[in-house]
Amino acid sequence: MTRAQQEALSRTALGVFRLNGQFLAVSERLAAPAGLTAARWQVLGAVLTEPLPVAGIARVMGITRQSVQRVADLLVRDGLAAYAPNPAHRRAKLLTPTETGRAAIRRIDPGHADLAARLTRELGGQEAFDETVRVLERLSKAMEALEAVEAGETAGGED
Predict the structure, then answer these.
(1) Dihedrals φ, ψ of 50, to 5°?
(2) 24-153 has which CATH code?
(3) Which pTM was predicted?
């Protein structure tokens, strides 16, 4: 690894950590009027289009199953989501939003739309925003590929 590569990696990691903090802070502000936290919004949002098991939500979000389980249980306790039988796996129930949960998400939509419009303008338009998304998705896929290689090396080394 060259010094320039190390510096690029460090700048990227620090930038992503900062961006994560910024997104969490704005997500907390957007979710609060709907009675949600950023974590609850994230988990509930993951199941709006289709019910998913907790492990599936964790994979999509890139966080631990235990973290998702804790939030999912709170959503169910508060009537924002429910567990449904999973035809593919008897023990791994599917998390699905309730109408109360969907209503909470709808209360976030105006603030979310406003932030999207303001961020689009700040980035210089939709094309620039789309390119930003592509770069972040590419970075995420590259990290996934490296993790897969490392997992394969670890698994291979244990045989």
Answers:
(1) -160, 145
(2) 1.10.10.10
(3) 0.84
